[in-house]
Structures are given as structure tokens and as C-alpha cells.
Predict the structure.
Amino acid sequence: EPEVTQTPSHQVTQMGQEVILRCVPISNHLYFYWYRQILGQKVEFLVSFYNNEISEKSEIFDDQFSVERPDGSNFTLKIRSTKLEDSAMYFCASSRVQGAGELFFGEGSRLTVL
Amino acid sequence: KQEVTQIPAALSVPEGENLVLNCSFTDSAIYNLQWFRQDPGKGLTSLLLIQSSQREQTSGRLNASLDKSSGRSTLYIAASQPGDSATYLCAVGRGGYQKVTFGTGTKLQVIP
């Protein structure tokens, strides 16, 4: 069964360092998303991406964050200068269709900022 | 702004019991509602997706209902098993680019 894969599963970094989280969405999906979950809190929307551009982003997704789809299969989330409060589980998701489509999530990348 | 609440926050039941998890949302102008399962430290596994025009969806021992006008959805689990122990999340979609709003989750423990 097709699945969304994410790497790394866990990354530990020092505050101020750049981090790139990688995702391979399901191959025939067109819509891609990043969500995050701070420990003990709700899953929160960060950004949606379609046709090689951001279609929607939340207030969390500030200038420190960026996304790209560099090679037609990977979908990455970059955090330019990590802060302690960026520590969270980051989930990539994809869907085949807009709006009515079922969302499929990856296993997540746990980011720990020290 | 959509607010999604799940009650109860935690639930412990003996194996074999039928149970209902509740999800309520404040804005009834939704496009769909999706139920997920999350195991500790793991990703989100999609269980059921209900479109706004539907009243319910079934998959195996799971049945999800949707009452858009009252802002409620329920997830019914029949004959619960220890393997059902997990956190269950509902997520409400408003269409467009499929931004969904997640609920607070219900942590279920099924005791053998």
C-alpha cells in the first residue's frame, strides 16, 4: 500500500542551526502539507503546497520556514534558524485531490532543539 | 475560527465493550471530517473520511457518523480489543487547499 515516508525520524540540533526535514508523498498525489505537533498539544497546520507553490500557510509558518519540491518526488521543510519552541513532531501529508480528498500522513520527524 | 473538541479526553474500557468517541466543531460549514488513529510517538493513520453530504461511513468494526447542522461527529468502535488502544483524533476540513483543524484527541485504553 502506498505511503508517505519521512526522514529523518528523529533529529537533534542546536538552537540557531538550519534543519531540513524530508518527505516523499504518495506518487500520484498532487497536494502536499506540513503539520506539526508540540508534545501534548494539538496537531497544527503549517503549510499547503500545490503546483510548486504555497497555496496556504498558517501564522506559525513565518520567514524562518520554507518548503520546496526540488525534484518532483521529495517535499522538504526547511527551518532556517531553529528555536527551542520549534521542538515538535513534524508531519508531512499528501492528498490526491483538493478539498474532498483523504489526507495521508507520514510517520513524522521528531525535532529536538537544544 | 474553527474549534474542534473531543470528549472524553481519555477513556478506559474492558475488552469487548462497544464505545463511542465524540467530536464537536463550532463552524458547520465543513467540507469533510476525517478520523485518525495515533499510536504513541507515531504518525496519523486515517480510519474514516466522511464527506459533508454523507451521514456515516463504516469500516470493519468502526462506524463514524456526521451531523453537520449540530456540529457533531461520533466514532463508534464495536467489540473493542486491546489493539485498539491509541489516541483517536478527528479533523475537520473546510475545503479549498484542505487545511484541516484537528481536535484535542481521545486517548483510549482497552484493558484485556
